[in-house]
Fold each of these.
Amino acid sequence: MRNSSLLKPAPALAAALALLSVFPPLLRAAEGDDLKLLREQLHALEQKILVLERKQELRDDDSAAAAKAAAKVTVNDKGFTLASADGANSLRLRGLVQLDARTFFNDNGITNNAFVLRRARLIAEGTFAKNFNFQLVPEFGGSSVSLVDATLGVNVSKELQFKFGRQKSPVGLELLQSDSWTFFNERSLVTNLVPNRDAGVLATGDLLGGRVNYSVGLFGGVADAASTTNTDFDNEKEAVARVFVSPFKDAAGSPVQGLSFGVAVSTGRAKTASGRTSGYRTDGQQTFFSYATTTIADGQNWRVAPQFNYRYGSFGALGEYVVSTVNVRPSATGPKRELQNKAWQLSAGYVLTGEDSSYNGVVPRSNFDFAAGTWGAVEVAARYANLRIDDGAFPVYASAASNANEATSLGLGLNWYLSKTVRFTFDFYQTQFGFAPGAPAVSNAPVLRQDERALITRFQVSF
């Protein structure tokens, strides 16, 4: 007979079996709590990461906005420029310094050899709200400080811009060229017959994709080769118009692509001695004609000036012809007479080092650097010019004994561009004079007793 007690589990074993029966659910419950806690912690961590990422994005956006709004400073051969990030507002400072040495040959002892600070300008230009601008150009060269240009501009479009203030009158082509980049260090005889700076308003613009440039203005009116003062209290004003076309501008590779030509005209009225020129000058800047001090302007004056500019590779040429008409009296009550003075010039240059010739100057492929063996760019130039005074000016309105009635000039030049900003020029001029009927065999003016032969060298810094 079996012992039934062996079939019953011991109490300890029973307790263990009971514990094992309930442990898995407890273990599963504990694991569920841990996973829930872990998920909550991961979720919180994700939220913190998202917050940190958003803060970093905001910081990056602020940095980008600050960089975008920061002013831009540029220093190059165009000067010192401070501009807003969007380019709508800017301020630029530029400069021009020209030091000349003038030497005259066979001048019979005339005291005219000199060193001359020809120009010394600090130029301020600015743009505001993209479409408004100004320019202020004081002159510290010469014998006194003066104001060269002072303008305010409004840019409506490429086809229409307005310029108000003291500025170049748009008649002479060579005059309109920058003082820094003419073929010769002094402009030709033709520039004697056109107005220089005048105060007024000018409308200008480019049409037909830049193939046509026009200018129309109303100015106070100045005499030949003269510049206005800062005021103009009279009723005699002058209208000016100019059209300059480049019909082959888009004909890439064509020999005529760089041909431009046009005509400028002016008309107005002038009175008093300020309405006629104070004198016409040679290439050497010596006066060869001036009216009698009692002569005054009184009546209509007008000018017409056909002109052209041509550039093809290293070759450049510029020409113009000017007729200037003025009505004068020998005194306030003397008889009036219309005088017509005429001048023309043809100049050309060739860049020996192969760079392109340009109305806006030659840019060397490499700047002068003795150590590197680079020499900049070299250009040769030649010019022929003639100016003739109306014979009717003599002897009533001007003295035939102390004035020439004609000047004919030949110029030869060498331009050395050490960089875009630095230039040496070496120019030789010879000017012959003609005289009106009745002039004495030997002029009363020492300057006119022989041909003018002048060597003018210039060291220039322009930026």
Note: The chain is about 15% helix and 45% strand.
Amino acid sequence: MSDERRRILGGWIGGPRTVSPLVLGYPGERLGFPETGPGSVAPMGLRILALIIDWLSCLLIGAFVTRVWGGLTPLVIFYAEILVFTTLLGASAGQRILRIEVRSVDGGRLSPIAVVIRSLLLFMALPAVIYDRDGRGLHDRAARTIVLRKTTTL
């Protein structure tokens, strides 16, 4: 067996020790996004904080509108907010505050159908907590989207 074949076979058989950050790269690398700065994959902490901001604002609006704390009203408001703001602005209110945005994997604006798919799956919650090494939840993978640090100044 040639040395090259032996090296390739040995790397494949190597098992878990070959799976390291050096092999996997940084989040977004395999999709062509930069490691840091504008246009890089938004960290999970910022995404969760944006979700908390969105949810609390929807709870407050729901309580103001219905004079009741809870119920389904905040959930409906949350879905509408995510759907409308992501379609028009490319980010929810919480994401805008934290300067992150939702983009198509090819880097362009989102199509309305991608926003609907992403919003419906996000609304179900479970797809959002299962994510890949690029920080893309199942909802992002289904809609071919990714959450990035903001690239524009608007």
Note: The two ends are 59 Å apart (CA to CA).
Amino acid sequence: MVKIDNIELSDFPLLLAPMEDVSDPPFRALCKEQGADVVYTEFISSEGLIRDAAKSTMKLDIYEKERPVGIQIFGANLDSMLKSVEIVEQSNPDIIDINFGCPVKKVVSKGAGAGILKDIDLMEKLTAEMVKRTHLPITVKTRLGWDHDSIKIVEVAERLQDVGCKAISIHGRTRSQLYKGEANWKPIAEVKNNPRMYIPIFGNGDVDSPERAKEMQDDYGLDGCMIGRATIGNPWFFKQVKHFFKTGEHLHSISMRERVTAARRHLQMAIDWKGEKLGVFETRRHYTNYFRGIPHFKEYRLKMVTSDNPKDVFAAFDEVEEKFSDFEF
């Protein structure tokens, strides 16, 4: 059994990664139903929280059915990060996660996200002060380093653990790589195999098949894996991985009916959460992804992404289910 502080998880937990414009409450709910052990919110700006920016505060919405759930925040200013902890606590998450890994330029340019990998002392100080500020477990998501020549992830992990961090998720790329090339899991294994480490170490990056998740467990000895892009349009990925771990076989492909049902539920939950206009507009990227790989699909995709009326979108789902009922993914 793996534990994040006092939170008991499975032997090899699967975590839904925090993803901007992806891991919102409806998507998290679907992933939770399909076997995600821990889910994380989209990453939230500490500056946005203390300014009470609507987009930031809305991301604090969490629901009982998601637990255990982590709220992830980013920033480089100590005062802002500490104030944001107090705001986050009011949503009563199970975990507060610090984003020290986002490679996006607009985040990095402010010294936040992966930008803080240039200043390990600040990274340690921010973590230490946030641990002191809250009773909730503080965890960290980060990368191997700023670039290939500055990888110090074994030292970084030790320092974060020593100031009270309860778990670390490590993406197997540097900031300079962005999402290019292959993720390198060997340095993550070095962190895990360091005899000084006793907190859970989760691997992240390129877990795009059940076999890769099994490799992360068997060949690299990690405590679990955090999965991001492989879940987009496929919340069933968690169920597929767990089925493979249990049986050594692949789960049946997800049928068109299951996909349409998920798309319908996703859209309806988004409407219930955000209202009709935002729910339809901001969920388009999701419900088109449920149907990736279908040939001659352009006509139906256009119907889904150009209508502002949910009735039209639901009707398009019905058309897709009827026309492509025999399509095998």
Note: The chain is about 45% helix and 15% strand.
Amino acid sequence: MVKIRNIELGEFPLLLAPMEDVSDPPFRALCKKHGADLMYTEFISSEGLIRDAAKSVQKLDIYEYERPVGIQIFGYDIESMREATRIIERTNPDIIDINFGCPVKKVTCKGAGAGMLQNIPKLIQMTDAIVKETNLPVTIKTRLGWDEQSKFVVSTSEQLQDVGVEAISIHGRTRVQLYKGDADWTLIGEVKNNPRMKIPIFGNGDIDSPEKALEYRNRYGIDGIMIGRASIGYPWIFNEVKHFMNTGAHLAPPGIKERVEAAREHLQMSVNWKGEGLGIAEMKRHYTNYFKGIAHFKDYRLKLVTSFQLNEIMDILNYIAEHENEFEFA
């Protein structure tokens, strides 16, 4: 049984990666429904929380049905991160996660996210301060290092454990790589198999099939896998991986009706949470993924992304479901 303090996550948990503009409450609800064991919010700016910025505060929304759930924060100033931790604690998440992995330039240029990988002493100092600030378990999301010459994740993980971190998720790329090339899991395996390490180590990067998940579990011995991009528009990935690991067989992939139902559910929750205008607008990025691989679907996808009326979009989705025999997978 993999545990983060007293939070039981199962024998080999599958985690939903925190993804900006993706892993909001509606999307997390679908991933939970389809087998995710632990989820994290979109990353939240510590400075935004302190300023009471509306977008940052809204990201604190968590719901009982999605537990266990962690709230993820990022920042460069240690005192601001401590203050943000106190604000987060009042919302009663299960975990506080620190982002040392985001490679986006507007984050790293301020020294936050993966930018902290250029200053490991400060990274450890910040983590130590946050662990001491909260009674909640603290976890970390990070990368192998800043670049090829600074892949210090093995020694950094030891130091993080020493200051009280209770789990680490490692993306198998450096910051300089962004999301290019193949993720390198060899150092993730080294962290996990380091005899000094006692806390759960989760691997992240390029897991897009049940076969790869099983192969990497067996090859690297990690405690669980964090899945990000492969879950966008395809929350079924979690149960598909679990079923394959348990049985060696594949679950039947979702058909047209199941995809429509997921898109419809996602849309309705998005509208309920964000309001109709924003909820509809932010769903547009998901339709391509929900209906990926369906032949001759271009006209329907165009209708979905150009409509701004909830009833009209629901009518389009209902039509697709009712005429499922007209569609086939390419």
Note: Residues 3-247 form a domain with the TIM Barrel fold (CATH 3.20.20.70).
